[in-house]
């Protein structure tokens, strides 16, 4: 029931939109009352004027929106609908309300009846969202069906070119754009209006009227046991047969259910290509025009009974449902891929930011290292200059000390010379006590002087050793500072190497992320190609069962449907027999 409600809502939506003259999304209450009354009439729903007046009271102000009309539509009309109304009449009523407003000029190859059938097919194939559109995949499916019905070849390249030029801002075509596309003859070049009309009618019969197969065959009567030619129409649960293909004079129905079966019969009584349809209370013997047609009808009826046993919908409705589910699945996969691509892109951006942060830190570290190296070199130059100055000064002090030592040595030589002289004098004046005492006093004086000189020399030597020790300590301190600076430089170089390794690792991770992105992109392309191949397979298996006319070695008549299955003489003989039978009856 939900599927029937959705189909009805699509046609009602067209009618409601047509009544919205100023495109405000609202319709006057008087128009909605008329629309509701018409809907109740064509849908065979009891009309409740009290509920209608109560819902649209005169004290309500302003027109009613689509959302405001939906509660009444669901409660008093759609929920009461049974599957006993004429769908064509319902669609024609909604079509009448919207056609004059939207179809301002007649398309080149379409008559108004053809446009109406395209409108109904659009409602069948359109998406279940409003405003109603038909997506490119369903447009391709419909155009393929029409091309096959016209006996032409499908031009896939032409449709791909049409899709390339398709407006990216739209997800599909409206019904009026679809009618204009088919009527323009863009995909039916070389076909006249009658051929296009027949193709639309054939597709309409299959998709909307659920006609699975139709054609002329001979049927054996139940009472008179005579054979009569009838036009048979196979639908999902019934086979109707008429006097002719205009469907005006219906002669009977063959009700199909899961207990029916069909089987081939051998030729008998001059009749060939026989087969039997066995139902609950009746058995029907039918003769096809040739073996190929017989096999096609047996296969079609057998498939229909098999679908009834499984409880499955007609093939075209099941195929439409599968296409919708496939589109939903592909859309979900595409959204998932887009989400993954966004996540990868976000992760890539985070990696880029991290790399940029690391690069800035490395640049700052390199700048600090260069600055510290510059300070170290400057300090080293200053220390070297200071050490050079200290060495020069030390050399000068050493030279001065050497000069003093040389001077003291000279004085010491002079002193020794004087001691020798005094000794000579002592030997000479030994005899005189006074001279001897004087000599001793002089000698004592000289000894004191020598002791003082030796003491001064010892003091100078200790001072010189102290200066030498200070110089050694200063040199050791300089070496220690130099070693510390060298250690700092080595540690900074190691930190710089570690930062460079981290940068290389981050670059490798970025490349891996890009490779993952390429892999996801390839998977998306493979999914798109797989979807396209499946759509082609589905389109190839959903072709309308074409009627194949019987062949004959005698000259053929040419009818609107192609070569006839009999000669002129046979036609006259059949007309004569038919008139005789008509007279006897």
Automatic annotation (TrEMBL):
Domain PH: 210-306
Coiled-coil boundaries: 316-530
Highest taxon, organism lineage: Eukaryota
GO terms, molecular function: DNA binding
Major location (coarse): membrane
UniProt KW Transcription regulation keyword: no
GO-annotated cellular components: cytoplasm; lamellipodium; nucleus; plasma membrane
Record keywords: Cell membrane, Cell projection, Coiled coil, Cytoplasm, DNA-binding, Membrane, Nucleus, Phosphoprotein
Subcellular location: Cell membrane; Cell projection, Lamellipodium; Cytoplasm; Nucleus
Matching CDD domains: PH_SWAP-70 (cd13273)
Function in brief: Phosphatidylinositol 3,4,5-trisphosphate-dependent guanine nucleotide exchange factor (GEF) which, independently of RAS, transduces signals from tyrosine kinase receptors to RAC. It also mediates signaling of membrane ruffling. Regulates the actin cytoskeleton as an effector or adapter protein in response to agonist stimulated phosphatidylinositol (3,4)-bisphosphate production and cell protrusion.
Assembly, per entry: The SWAP complex consists of NPM1, NCL, PARP1 and SWAP70.
Record-given protein name: Switch-associated protein 70
């Amino acid at each position: 029931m939900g599927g029937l409600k959705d189909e009805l809502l699509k046609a009602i939506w067209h009618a409601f939109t047509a009544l919205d003259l100023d495109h405000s999304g609202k319709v006057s209450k008087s128009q909605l009352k008329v629309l509701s009354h018409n809907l109740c009439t064509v849908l065979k729903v009891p009309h409740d004027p009290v509920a209608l007046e109560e819902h649209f009271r005169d004290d309500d102000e302003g027109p009613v929106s689509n959302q405001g009309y939906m509660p009444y539509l669901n409660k008093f009309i759609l929920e009461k609908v049974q599957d006993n109304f004429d769908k064509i009449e319902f669609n024609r009523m909604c079509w009448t309300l919207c056609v004059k407003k939207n179809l301002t000029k007649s398309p080149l190859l379409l008559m108004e009846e053809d446009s109406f059938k395209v409108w109904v097919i659009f409602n069948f194939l359109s998406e279940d969202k409003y405003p109603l559109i038909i997506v490119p995949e369903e447009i391709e499916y419909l155009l393929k069906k029409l091309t096959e019905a016209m006996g032409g070849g499908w031009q896939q390249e032409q449709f791909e070119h049409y899709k390339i030029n398709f407006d990216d801002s739209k997800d599909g075509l409206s019904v009026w754009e679809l009618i204009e596309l088919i009527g323009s003859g863009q995909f039916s070049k070389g076909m006249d209006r009658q051929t296009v009309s027949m193709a639309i009618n054939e597709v309409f019969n299959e998709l909307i009227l659920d006609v699975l197969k139709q054609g002329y065959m001979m049927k054996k009567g139940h009472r008179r046991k005579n054979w009569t030619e009838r036009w048979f129409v196979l639908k999902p649960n019934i086979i109707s047969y008429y006097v002719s293909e205009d469907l005006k004079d219906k002669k009977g129905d063959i009700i199909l259910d899961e207990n029916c079966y069909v089987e081939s019969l051998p030729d008998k009584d001059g009749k060939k290509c026989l087969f039997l349809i066995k139902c609950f209370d009746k058995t029907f013997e039918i003769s096809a025009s040739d073996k190929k047609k017989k096999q096609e009808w047996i296969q079609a009826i057998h498939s229909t009974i098999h679908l009834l046993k499984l409880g499955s919908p007609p093939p075209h409705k099941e195929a439409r449902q599968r296409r919708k589910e496939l589109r939903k699945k592909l859309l979900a996969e595409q959204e998932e891929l887009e989400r993954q691509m966004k996540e990868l892109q976000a992760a890539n951006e985070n990696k880029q930011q991290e790399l940029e942060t690391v690069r800035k830190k490395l640049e700052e570290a390199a700048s600090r290292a260069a600055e510290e190296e510059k300070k170290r070199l400057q300090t080293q130059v200053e220390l070297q200059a200071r050490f050079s100055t200290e060495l020069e000064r030390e050399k000068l002090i050493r030279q001065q000390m050497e000069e003093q030592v040389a001077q003291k040595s000279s004085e010491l030589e002079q002193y020794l010379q004087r001691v020798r002289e005094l000794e000579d004098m002592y030997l000479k004046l030994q005899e005189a006590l006074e001279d001897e005492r004087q000599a001793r006093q002089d000698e004592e004086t000289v000894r004191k002087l020598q002791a003082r000189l030796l003491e001064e020399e010892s003091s100078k030597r200790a001072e010189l050793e102290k200066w030498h020790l200070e110089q050694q300590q200063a040199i050791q301190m300089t070496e220690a500072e130099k070693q510390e600076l060298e250690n700092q430089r080595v540690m900074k170089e190691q930190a710089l190497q570690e930062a460079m390794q981290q940068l290389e690792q981050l670059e490798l991770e970025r490349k891996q992320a890009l490779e993952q992105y390429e892999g996801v992109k390839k998977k998306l392309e493979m999914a798109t190609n797989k979807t396209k191949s499946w759509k082609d397979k589905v389109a190839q298996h959903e072709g309308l069962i074409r009627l194949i006319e019987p062949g004959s070695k005698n000259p053929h008549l040419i009818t609107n449907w192609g070569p006839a299955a009999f000669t002129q003489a046979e036609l006259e003989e059949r007309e004569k027999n038919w008139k005789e039978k008509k007279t006897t009856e």
